[in-house]
Every structure is written in C-alpha cells, then in structure tokens.
Amino acid sequence: MKQTTLLLVAFLFASANVFSQTTDNVDYNVWSIQPDSIYIVFAKKAYVRSDAGVSNPLIDSLAAGEKIIAKEQTKRFETVRNIYAPWVKISYTKDGAQKEGYMWLGSVAIKNTWAGNTNFLFGIDRLEKEKDASDPTSTYIKYVMQVKAVADSVIDQKEWKIDAGEAATYMDMMMLGDTKLQNLQNVVRMQAGGEACGIPTNYFYYGWTGKKFLPFPGKYSVGDAGVFYHSETLLFPHEKGGQPNKILKLTEEEEVLEEATETKKEKVKRSKSKEVYVWNGEKAIKQ
To answer: What does the domain layout of the chain look like in residue ranges?
Structure first.
C-alpha cells in the first residue's frame, strides 16, 4: 500500500490498480492510465475545456464511446458527481481535425473491450453516501457502477452499487463470449475487490442479447491465508461440466478450526455446495 501511494503521489500512470477517490484521500486515483495511450469516453457527454478546471472555457464535447489520447495528468483535482478526480490534457480527432484540450478524468471509462462492432464500457457514474442504519452518525461510501454497450450511440446500460474504499482497490472487465445460453450473444463480467487479506472480490455478470443487458447471478471469493477461504464459481453450458440452459454456482469453503502443534495435526473444516439456475432466455431462475 505504501508503494502504491508513493507512485500515485508522483502521478504515475502505469499502475494497474484503481483506488477509492474522495477529497479526504487525495493520493488515490481510481483511473489507471498510461500517457499517450488511447482511452474511451464513459460519460454520456464529456466536456473538453481550454484548461484544467470547470471554470475554464468550454471548447468541445465528446460522447460515450469516443476515443481520446491522455497526454498528461495535471495537478488540478475537482469534485463532480461527488467524485474527486484529476484533470488530464488530451488529444482527439473530430471532424477530421486533430484537437487538444482538457477533460475531467471522471468522464473516462475504467475499462473497455470490443465484441464485434460493440464497445463495452465499465466505469463509475457517481459516488453516493448512505447512512449506517446501526449508527446514524456514520456513512458508507458507495460507487454507482455502470456497464454500457456502445455502437454509434449507447444501446443499453445497467448500474449497481458497490462498496468503495478498500473493497474496490482493483477493477476489471472481460467478455466471456457465447456461453450457449438461449437468446444471448455474449456475457460480460465485471469485478471489484481489495488486495488485502479478508477483503472479498465481487463479480457482476450480465448477458448480452445484441440489444440489451440481462442480469445474472453474481459470485464472490474471499480468503485469509492459512485461516479460511470462500470461493464461488459460475459454470456455464459451454464449459466442461456445464448443463444446457443452466448456470451452476459451485461453492467451496475451508476454515482452520485448530492450528497444528507438535503433537496435533491441523483441524480443518471443508464444505462444498451447488446452486442451479435455469435460464429461460430472459432471466436466471434458481431451482
């Protein structure tokens, strides 16, 4: 953690991790970018300004799915939609002309990937604070995450909330391809988790019909070396052991009840379970 913080203070773009971005944690940066690399606009409309900061003249706007090149991260941070993020100098092509300007980094996708002619974007729409029901003086910080399918414009999008802070220090997205589920062309999987022991990694799935996202069951994994682990796997029809038009959730758990001593072996509790979801072409129904 110390190493990561030092790198981010130095505005290193090459880090593969993403971190909670709030005004009380300015050393963190939820967007991981490398200079002179291509990135994708995530916001419905992202504004380009003459210099870093919302008070500077607006010179252009770009829509979700458009490409930019991040040239340089500035020292200017601002809060928009409750997200505290830096400004970056960008270059881009519009109407056949090469242009430059400054964009607030919160407008950029954290991850994107192509499947056919559709670009799938994964990013943060906003940050929300929720009250702790057991302690009215405390609040939880939540990211409102979104996945978008973009061709010439946004075809469809879905959103959900995740815990911010240490629970979201790493994010990623991948396409699983044709899983042989009825009515689906692809399955997109997003993940968010922490690097420390005992912090779970959560996985979020959506089926893609070519026109809209359909929700899937999710999964999570968590562990603490030498103490316990909980691991969940989703098994799809195209995989070995999969069943036609079903999603299988396989769970394994292990807990160390007693540590080994000179005279005793380690005492471990292990368990396995399975849940079956039937896919009817629109939703997964748990049996």
So the answer is: 1-108
Which residue in 81, 168, 191, 196 sits closest to 129, CA to CA?
A: 81
The tokens describing 143, both together, are 């990211």
Angstrom distances, CA of residue 146 to CA of 1, 44, 97, 216: 27, 12, 31, 15
pLDDT at 283: 97
Q: DSSP secondary structure string, the chain?
A: -HHHHHHHHTT-S---------TT-TT--S----TTEEEEB-SSEEEEESSSSTTSPEEEEEETT-EEEEEEEEEEEEEETTEEEEEEEEEEEETTEEEEEEEEGGGB-SEEEEETTEEEEEEEEEEEEEEETTEEEEEEEEEEEEEEEESSSEEEEEEEEEE-GGGGSEEEEEE------TT-SEEEEEEEE-SSTT--EEEEEEEE-SS-EEE---EEEEEETTTEEEEEEEE-TTSTT--TTEEEEEEEEEEEEE---SSSPPEEEEEEEEEEEEE-SS-EEE-
**Which residue do the tokens 């991260």 mark?**
73
Per-residue model confidence as pLDDT tens digits over 256-278: 888 888 888 888 899 999 999 99
**Phi, psi for 259 (deg, rounded to 5):** -75, 155
d(CA 170, CA 190): 11
Residue 41 near residue 107, CB atoms below 8 Å: yes
Cα–Cα distance for residue pair 21/127, rounded to 1 Å: 9
pTM of structure = 0.87
pLDDT at residue 6 above 80? no
The CA distance from 130 to 253, in Å, is 31
Q: What is the distance between the alpha carbons of residues 146 and 240, in angstroms, rounded to a whole number?
A: 31
| 185 contacts 210 by C-beta, under 8 angstroms | yes
Any idea which residue has 């807990």 for tokens? 255
